[in-house]
Amino acid sequence: MRPSRVIALLEREFLASQTGAHTPVMLWGPPGVGKSQLVLQTAERHGAAVIDVRLAQMEPTDLRGIPFRDGRNVLWSVPALLPDAERHGARGILFLDEITSAPPTVTAAAYQLILDRRLGEYRVPDGWAIVAAGNRHGDRGLAYQMPAPLANRFTHFDVEPDLEDWIAWAHEKRIDSRLIAFLRFRPDLLFDFDAARASHAFPSPRSWEFAHRALGKFGPGTGLLAEALKGCVGAAAALACMAFVEHLGALPDIGAIAAGRETGVPGPIDLQYAVATALVQHVARLAAPERAAASGHVLRYARGFPQRELGVMLVVDLQRVVGEPLYANPEFAHWAGEVSGMLSYERG
Fold this sequence. Notes:
Elements: H1 3-16, E1 25-28, H2 35-45, E2 49-54, H3 60-64, E3 67-70, E4 73-76, H4 85-88, E5 92-97, H5 104-116, E6 118-119, E7 122-123, E8 128-134, H6 148-151, E9 155-158, H7 163-172, H8 177-185, H9 205-217, H10 225-233, H11 235-246, H12 254-258, H13 269-285, H14 288-302, H15 308-322, H16 325-328, H17 330-339
Parallel strand pairs: 1-8, 1-9, 2-5, 5-8
Antiparallel strand pairs: 3-4, 6-7
Helix pairs in contact: 1-2, 7-8, 8-13, 9-10, 10-11, 13-14, 13-15, 14-15, 14-17
């Protein structure tokens, strides 16, 4: 399931926790696919808290609490890490990350918490959703077989990387436009994980974010950028990315295109991907009054791509950052009229 669909599902489950209709969710996926980020994004959209509990780092008593004597009875103290409405807020997500890496003695202690929303005398507050995540068997990580009684306490969803979802996230987070353009050019390298290979570094949505940081820290002249990228995404992906980045010296003036000054579309296909991505990020950085004029110039420029698919890609990405006002731009009607046979679009 692509990440945008997972977020939509998690949002429904989060809201359902306030009405008593919530079912605990288990997210499966290979390392680096972004399972934890999906949970955090869901909580951020609703201004809710996330309590991240790493069961793999716990003993059973860490979850169950420590017993103490109260007169003739033995009671259990409630661990401070579990959700409390007064301390953590009335709404939130209890996130049991790396649950498949936890030993069976710990997951057994979580059975009642997950299904019954309680643990002894403790109760999970209404308004709190329960989400777990873990790697699959064969992902070259520590993973125990999930016991059937525990598995039956969840609804299960597989998270798969998706380029369009990653690009939408990357524009929002201002990821380096060179990386976005490169992955548009080489979509096969967004995620390339093979459990049979021994490489420590491999391309994934998470490691490309690390590559973004590397591009900001290590300039081409230092001689360190190639090694830094290799450490993030592996040798093969780093080599391809470096070749792409080094070729961008022939990129046309992005500011001139956005200002409406005549600038031709570059001939090499990799530069066309790069200029399209750079234009979107340029418009995203403009103040609202300047965006309308710049968007019109970019729409006109999009009509000049020899391959119409690249022009469509540019406008789709532009709509992500401009939103509804793009449809009211006079240039949009001209552009849509030329490509009407290739796509349909929906407002809102």
